[in-house]
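Throughout our pipeline, every protein is held as a single compact record rather than as scattered files. Such a record has a labelled line for the sequence and another for the backbone structure tokens. This encoding replaces a full spatial description with a residue-level series of whole-number codes. For reference, a complete record is included directly beneath this paragraph.
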Amino acid sequence: MLQILFFFALLFTFSKNAAAIDFCVANLKRPAGPAGYPCITPTKVRTNDFVFTGLGVAGNTTNLIKAAVTPSFVAQFPGLNGLGLSIARLDLAPGGVVPMHTHPAASEILYVLHGKITAGFISSANSVYVKTLFKGDVMVFPQGLLHFQTNGGGKPASAVVSFNNPDPGLQILDFALFGNNLASSLVEQTTFLDDATVKKLKGILGGTG
């Protein structure tokens, strides 16, 4: 009988403590760990910690890829810390593209606001899944898989993208290969591209070596 009462006492204490931690607004002045950022003191939490107002304005697409991603991740939106979600805005000018990339820490879901977006991903078995999406369409991209988005029409397009992680991570394949100081000889050996092509891409994307 005492063991049963002790069990329920522990259960009550655990439930009470778990319920007391409603949120963990990120302390961005401290380094993040595997579980996210440490929490700021609850008495310093304000309503604005749970509000982000940056997605109502189109991003600047006057760049190499004619695309802009406006992130609302934990670094911009501290109230997301520990909640397992985040959001961003994607803008694509005509001819715009988000090159092949991955999010190591999250799956992604894309909702087209306006325009036409051609998007797709490649599975680990190298199966290709591509679709041209229109206003109101939604597509999901599983965690860690290579995927892309391009403007599928002649007018600007935009979308909202959401992730199941407050910090989804990002690695763009083109920049990983040609935007750093990885030796051209190794890039050529591992991609089967010729030297002239590798040097050209490195020149475009800012790589050396």
